[in-house]
From TrEMBL:
<keyword id="KW-0472">Membrane</keyword>
<keyword id="KW-1003">Cell membrane</keyword>
<keyword id="KW-0796">Tight junction</keyword>
<dbReference type="InterPro" id="IPR006187">
    <property type="entry name" value="Claudin"/>
</dbReference>
<comment type="similarity">
    <text>Belongs to the claudin family.</text>
</comment>
<keyword id="KW-1133">Transmembrane helix</keyword>
<feature type="transmembrane region" description="Helical">
    <location>
        <begin position="7"/>
        <end position="25"/>
    </location>
</feature>
<dbReference type="InterPro" id="IPR003554">
    <property type="entry name" value="Claudin10"/>
</dbReference>
<keyword id="KW-0965">Cell junction</keyword>
<dbReference type="GO" id="GO:0007155">
    <property type="term" value="P:cell adhesion"/>
</dbReference>
<protein>
    <recommendedName>
        <fullName>Claudin</fullName>
    </recommendedName>
</protein>
<feature type="region of interest" description="Disordered">
    <location>
        <begin position="212"/>
        <end position="231"/>
    </location>
</feature>
<feature type="transmembrane region" description="Helical">
    <location>
        <begin position="159"/>
        <end position="183"/>
    </location>
</feature>
<comment type="function">
    <text>Claudins function as major constituents of the tight junction complexes that regulate the permeability of epithelia.</text>
</comment>
<dbReference type="InterPro" id="IPR017974">
    <property type="entry name" value="Claudin_CS"/>
</dbReference>
<dbReference type="GO" id="GO:0070830">
    <property type="term" value="P:bicellular tight junction assembly"/>
</dbReference>
<dbReference type="GO" id="GO:0005886">
    <property type="term" value="C:plasma membrane"/>
</dbReference>
């Protein structure tokens, strides 16, 4: 029962992390920078893995897509690949988890389901590591440019998408670890086998009682005969 509950908790945690990781791909604010005037913010620059934009004080945004994938910076290409891999691994991990959980009726025996659940945990951990690496690589580029005194171009700060990606990656890793530990719980608590002998009928129980009573009378009479024989 405890193993089933832990698997359900691990599935909910890992799926929540996968949803958060998936939501980071279309999120706008991977990095953001603002230009402040004397009273209001005059412009906000922001970018993600697919485009760079600027929003003025009236709320009008002008965006420019990255012209060519081959002409992109290496860190953006690496982040794209890592985040897409994280989303794909999380999808397959959720499928494996559905087959490996004890509360589902698919996946075969308990031993086979435990192995599938452990595989789902490993896949979720890999998904979390890919997301964590991608977000950290992007954040490292931002912080390096921000603290570089020789960098004269527009400097950015960490956007909301990075924090969402880190949170989702952490949940995926936690859920995957719980799935991996569930296989040890299954091995420690094997299923008990019970033999069913069938219901005893009333007639058979009466027959057994009468036969037992007859044996008791024969035994008592033989004891009395033995005592008379020695008199």
């Amino acid at each position: 029962m405890a193993s089933t509950a832990s698997e359900i908790i691990a599935f909910m945690v890992a799926i929540s992390g996968w949803v958060l990781v998936s939501s980071t791909l279309p999120t706008d604010y991977w990095k953001v920078s603002t230009i402040d005037g004397t009273v209001i913010t005059t412009a906000t620059y922001w970018a993600n893995l697919w485009k760079t934009c600027v929003t003025d004080s009236t709320g009008v945004s002008n965006c420019k897509d990255f012209p060519s994938m081959l002409a992109l910076d290496g860190y953006i290409q690496a982040c794209r690949g890592l985040m897409i891999a994280a989303v794909s691994l999380g999808f397959f991990g959720s499928i494996f988890a559905l087959f490996g959980m004890k509360c589902t009726k698919v996946g075969g025996s308990d031993k086979a389901k435990a192995k599938i659940a452990c595989l789902a945990g490993i896949v979720f951990i890999l998904s979390g590591l890919c997301s964590m690496t991608g977000c950290s690589l992007y954040a490292n580029k931002i912080t390096t440019e921000f603290f570089d005194p020789l960098y004269v171009e527009q400097k950015y700060e960490l956007g909301a998408a990075l924090f969402i990606g880190w949170a989702g990656a952490s949940l995926c890793i936690i859920g995957g670890v719980i799935f991996c530990f569930s296989i040890s719980d299954n091995s420690k608590t094997p299923r008990m086998a019970y033999a069913y002998n069938g219901a005893t009928s009333v007639l058979s129980s009466r027959t057994k009682y009468q036969s037992g009573e007859g044996d008791f009378k024969n035994t008592s009479s033989s004891k009395q005969f033995d005592k008379n024989a020695y008199v």
